[in-house]
Amino acid sequence: MSTSAAGASSETDVAEKRSRQSFRNIHISQILAYRLPPSGIVSILHRISGALLFLTLPFLVALWDMSLTSEESFWQLSLYTQSVAVRVVLLVLAWGFLHHLLAGVRYLLLDVHCGIDKAAARNSALLVFAISLPLAAVFGLWLFGVL
Amino acid sequence: MAAAKDMVGSRRLVVGAHYGIGAWVGQRITALFMGVYFVGLLACLLWRGDFTYLGWAQLFAPIWAKALTVLAWGALLYHVWVGVRDIWMDYVRPVSLRLLLHVLSAVWLAACGVWAMAILWRV
User: Fold this and answer.
1) Is B35 within 8 Å of B28 (Cβ atoms)?
2) CATH number, position B62
3) What gap in Å lies between CA B45 and CA A67, rounded to an integer?
4) Cβ contacts of B45 on chain A, cutoff 8 Å
5) pLDDT tens-place string over residues A49-60
């Protein structure tokens, strides 16, 4: 934090804080209206993607099973993934995996106090989206046969 | 110094004993292991460039690949267990319901683990 900037803008900060609506122990009905900072969005999506991967773990094991059991089951898997519904599910899970992985790398860095100040943490949160979303998009294009 | 009311016997603390630190550190170490495993697996696959059944199955054939995969599965199950337990502890207050969800989660994960081992040893 730069001290000169903080000193110069302290009066406007106070005025802004007074006018800003404050949320304390918000009700569950307010959750979607509450605007989270990028770090907050990364955080809740990290939890949601983790829960999603937990709930679909048997499905993923089943796919792994088909891919490894025999030449025939491998072939069946490639037929199975022709279905649009399966492709959509796979795309969502691939996004979930990518987001969970990249947000996880960010948390490991934060845990060792790397990039822990406000600006750096905001930038790294945006970076998580800047990497995970294009990678998921590329996977989606490949999955739907565009690439 | 811990207060006497927080102790069980003379050694074991009930509160503030930092037992959660073990799970927290474990979740991060398992994350690191899985991250390296997944990136390594992807790198091996791309480097070999064989996307047929045989090429894919051969990745898991050597005993050291099986050993690493078993460790990655162990890491995954522990990592997920800590994460899912955190979710239940955050959102589910009634003890009976929370216990039920913990048991169901453990069974869910253990079943996936056993299934995964069966798959791996068929390769």
Assistant:
1) no
2) 1.20.1300.10
3) 14
4) none
5) 999 999 999 999
